[in-house]
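Students often ask why inverse folding is considered easier than folding. One informal answer: many sequences map to the same fold, so there is more than one right answer. In these notes we will look at a single instance of the problem. The structure comes first.
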């Protein structure tokens, strides 16, 4: 089998590339996806997020290595395994990240990745429910729904932010990210709007696009230093080799892409030798620089019967499900994240490094089952962690999952910032807006006040926001830890690119799905030899008193 382009992975980036590259009828494109079709009804139901994560049918559910700073706990890393990838199972929260993130990318040597460079691609990819403007698009394939908070807890959260002196924002992905505002989600007409639905499905009728599911890639095949194809195991268990006339593009994600690179002999020489894999090209940065957003949850009893708990009872769930099936409306059409805050952890912090989001229901940490009482929880996400981890091979067997070590809280600065976040949330819920709603803090509990007490709880309860990234990062050829250049081309090889969250130099200060889609949109033009979209210079708000004030 011969194709112009072979795309490994039909996830958030791969679906975008499949659409854009096949839009030119002269290109033949093969997409290889290890998982199945995205045909399950639960994948369309926004409220079925936790159900999808509990199942391994559409979820790799990687088990991480024992985390040294988390008492040796193993954290599960959920990654999509279906058409649409993680966009088919994620929480659907849509946040672009701050303009300063992208200026930081540019300053690391990634020319063409400043905010003015990426903004036109963010606009091209979306149709925003709040309407188009200087920052938002109104005719793209990805539908982004703007929440309209109505439940008392989300409204109290927003008002409490105002009471506490934080700025309010009309759009966290627009002019002002910093502050309290409503959340955006990738939902359209009450259904999850994954990249499979936004990008891949409209392109599948094209004769020049071939999509193979249940295709487990074994390695990239080379002709000298040129990537010439891909060896993969098909649904019948037979190994097949597909040839690429122009490029092989890895879009297998921050776990899958470095995994496949190393299986193909590309990566740290000593590690590949240890695994018994013949070295094709030494790149020390493959699998290194692993970024994530650690997450910690505070839980409170609710004094009034306004939480969503009663809606999770068996009869109520059936009624809600029927309503959604008939109308695509109601609680099932929501991810239950309507209000969010992007704030700075303290004075001297240039732009938001904490994401705080409220859920109008509390769940058990181990089972994710709703607690049988009126309660709510508030998540604290550290958006710019200093700790770095790595992804390594477990063996040379392609079917063996890789080793994932994030090193949560290894850098003590992350502990300081997480403790700051806990104290800021506690201050928030003491505002007048919560006075008739907030009961006791039952986790971690008001008795935990000192740094040592909070650290002990961080050790036992810090987990992931599922934003693994940066394991094949962009950088210049002279940067020994960089894996790809600013066009996603793997240094020292030809015909091989990486296009997904693994090439971020460092993670953005928000959920990573939106930036990943943008990456693929932008690099699709580069792959096709098209000039990049014209830069859009847009001023964004930055707190003029950030050096001396926290808000």
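Output (designed amino acids):
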């Amino acid at each position: 089998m011969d194709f112009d382009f072979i795309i490994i992975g039909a996830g958030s980036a791969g679906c975008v590339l499949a659409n854009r590259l096949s839009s030119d009828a002269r290109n033949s494109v093969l997409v290889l996806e290890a998982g199945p079709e995205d045909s399950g009804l639960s994948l369309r139901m926004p409220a079925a997020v936790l159900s999808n994560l509990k199942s391994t049918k559409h979820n790799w559910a990687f088990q991480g290595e024992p985390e040294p700073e988390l008492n040796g706990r193993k954290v599960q890393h959920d990654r999509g395994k279906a058409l649409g990838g993680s966009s088919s199972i994620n929480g659907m929260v849509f946040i672009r990240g701050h303009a300063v993130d992208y200026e930081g990318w540019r300053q690391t040597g990634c020319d063409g990745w400043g905010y003015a460079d990426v903004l036109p691609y963010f606009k091209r990819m979306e149709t925003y429910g709040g309407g188009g403007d200087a920052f938002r698009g109104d005719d793209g394939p990805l539908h982004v729904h703007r929440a309209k908070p109505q439940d008392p807890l989300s409204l109290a959260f927003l008002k409490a932010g105002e009471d506490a002196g934080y700025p309010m924002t009309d759009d966290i992905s627009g002019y002002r990210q910093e502050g309290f505002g409503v959340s955006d989600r990738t939902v359209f007409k009450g259904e999850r709007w994954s990249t499979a639905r936004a990008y891949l499905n409209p392109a599948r009728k094209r004769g020049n696009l071939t999509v193979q599911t249940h295709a487990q890639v074994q390695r990239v095949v080379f002709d000298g230093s040129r990537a010439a194809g891909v060896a993969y195991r098909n649904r019948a268990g037979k190994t097949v080799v597909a040839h690429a006339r122009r490029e092989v593009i890895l879009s297998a994600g921050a776990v899958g892409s470095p995994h496949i690179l190393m299986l193909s002999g590309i990566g740290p020489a000593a590690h590949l030798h240890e695994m018994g894999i013949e070295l094709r090209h030494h790149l020390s940065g493959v699998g290194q620089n692993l970024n994530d957003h650690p997450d910690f949850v505070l839980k409170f009893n609710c004094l009034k019967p306004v939480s969503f708990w009663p809606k999770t009872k068996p009869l109520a769930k059936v009624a809600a499900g029927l309503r959604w099936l008939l109308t695509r409306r109601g609680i099932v059409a929501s991810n239950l994240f309507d209000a969010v805050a992007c704030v700075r952890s303290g004075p001297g912090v240039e732009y938001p490094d904490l994401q705080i989001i409220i859920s109008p229901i509390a769940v058990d940490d181990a089972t994710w089952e709703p607690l049988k009482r009126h309660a709510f929880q508030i998540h604290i996400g550290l958006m710019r962690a200093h700790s770095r981890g790595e992804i390594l091979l477990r063996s040379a067997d392609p079917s063996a999952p890789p080793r994932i070590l994030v090193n949560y809280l290894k850098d003590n600065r992350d502990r300081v910032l997480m403790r700051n976040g806990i104290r800021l949330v506690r201050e928030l819920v003491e505002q007048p807006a919560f006075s008739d709603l907030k009961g006791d803090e039952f986790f971690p509990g008001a008795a935990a006040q000192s740094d040592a007490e909070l650290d002990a709880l961080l050790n036992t309860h810090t987990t992931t926001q599922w934003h693994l990234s940066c394991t094949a990062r962009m950088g210049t050829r002279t940067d020994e830890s960089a894996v790809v250049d600013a066009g996603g081309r793997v240094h020292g090889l030809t015909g091989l690119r990486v296009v997904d969250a693994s090439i971020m130099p460092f993670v953005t200060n928000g959920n990573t799905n939106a930036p990943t889609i943008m990456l693929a949109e932008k690099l699709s033009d580069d792959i096709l030899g098209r000039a990049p979209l014209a830069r859009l210079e847009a001023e964004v708000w930055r707190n003029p008193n950030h050096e001396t004030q926290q808000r």
